[in-house]
Design a protein that fits this description.
There is one protein chain. By secondary structure, the chain is α+β, with helices and mostly antiparallel strands. Helices cover about 55% and strands about 10% of the residues. It contains 15 helices and nine strands. The strands form three sheets. It has a four-stranded antiparallel beta sheet with strand order 4-5-3-6, sandwiched between helices. Strands 7-8-9 form a three-stranded antiparallel beta sheet.
């Protein structure tokens, strides 16, 4: 594979590729008003996008902002649908085929066939190897302070110039990164853009390469801005934490937050929604508290005929899918038994429990 992306922008800029980007963008939300409006005049809308990008007249639309409160409070910015189609095209045609293969194998966020469950599985695998080979070991767990809000877009663009040589692609990349802001406003990227999660990974790939190549850390896993190093002793943790902190500030203008710390392996590690030990994996206490509060709320709504059963069922099954990757069989049974709205008879309840038992057996296999 070529070291740099060369002469591919015009080749990838086709009606067919934009149509494919639209089909991916509409997935799971075909009945939203903005999607329907775009599809009413689909051919013209895609042709206009194609011509605007080709003629260098394309600009991003205005953001719609809203706040989410789980897992923590964040301001999310959503672009108009036409811009989300463009982001899909850009990521699928340029970022995924050319830049993602350059990432280390233990970076797990927002990447196909990776994700939180694979990240938790890998760090537990590494913990077992360390215990088998070294006995007791130490864990250095780090988190970056206000990561998305602190990314320096001028540094991000400079990093991308190391990978992209096509001048047209570089110009378009700069347009997406700068996002219509003033020249002196270079800090932060929007949470919510499809491009943002990949730009964030590209940004922290610099850290990944430094830790793996320069520091020669064998057991290292990152999920977005949370990362873990397994080391032989406390002294190594102290030294590497300081070196990493200096690297982050000097090269990426980022800081470790106060939650970054090191401790003996017997304490386990909180990572990707689980409390992970060498011998087993548990759900985090906060996760258990949240599902119990939800069940209580759902039951109250059910008694008052106010429950949206379809949404509650989707939420319960999502939680079951997450908890299935931990040692949580008895907790699952307990939660299911408390859901008054789930089953009309005991047979339905037993069927659900049998499904859980089958899934647990497959996980072990």
């Amino acid at each position: 594979m070529s070291k740099k992306v060369k002469h591919c922008f015009d080749e990838k800029l086709t009606f067919e590729n934009l149509l494919s980007a639209h089909m991916r963008s509409r997935k799971n939300k075909p009945y939203r008003n903005e999607v329907i409006q775009f599809e009413i005049n689909l051919e013209n809308n895609l042709t206009n996008l194609l011509n605007q990008i080709r003629n260098r007249t394309y600009h991003l639309g205005n953001y719609f902002e809203f706040t989410i409160y789980e897992p923590k409070e964040r301001i999310i910015k959503a672009l108009p649908y036409r811009d989300r189609v463009v982001h899909q095209w850009y990521v699928e045609e340029f970022i995924k085929p050319y830049l993602v293969p350059k990432f280390i194998s233990t970076s797990y966020a927002c990447l196909t066939n990776r994700g939180t469950h694979k990240a938790a599985q890998k760090i537990q695998e590494y913990m077992r190897i360390m215990q088998r080979n070294k006995g007791d070991f130490w864990i250095l767990k780090c988190d970056i302070e206000k990561f998305f809000y602190r990314i320096d877009t001028s540094i991000l663009y400079k990093i991308l110039t190391n990978y992209i040589e096509d001048p047209d692609l570089l110009a378009f990349t700069k347009l997406l990164i700068m996002d219509g802001r003033e020249v002196n406003d270079t800090i932060g990227i929007p949470i919510g853009n499809y491009t943002s999660q990949f730009f964030a990974n590209i940004y922290l790939n610099e850290l990944d390469q430094f830790i793996k190549r320069n520091l020669q850390v064998k057991y290292y896993v990152r999920y977005m801005d949370d990362f873990i190093l397994l080391l032989e002793n406390k002294k190594q943790c102290i030294e590497l934490k300081d070196i990493i902190s200096q690297f982050l500030w000097k090269n990426l203008h980022l800081r470790l937050n106060q939650k970054s710390r090191y401790y003996p392996c017997k304490m386990g590690v909180n990572f990707c929604g689980y409390r992970i030990f060498t011998t087993h994996r548990l759900l985090r206490t906060s996760n258990k508290s949240k599902i119990k509060k939800k069940v209580k709320k759902w039951n109250e709504q059910y008694e008052n005929n106010q429950l949206n059963v379809e949404k509650a069922l989707a939420s319960i099954h999502s939680w079951l899918g997450h908890s299935m990757h931990a040692n949580s069989y008895h907790l699952q049974q307990k939660i299911l038994n408390k859901c008054h709205f789930l089953y009309t008879n005991a047979t339905d309840l037993q069927i659900e429990k049998n499904i859980i038992e089958d899934m647990q057996k497959k996980k072990v296999e």
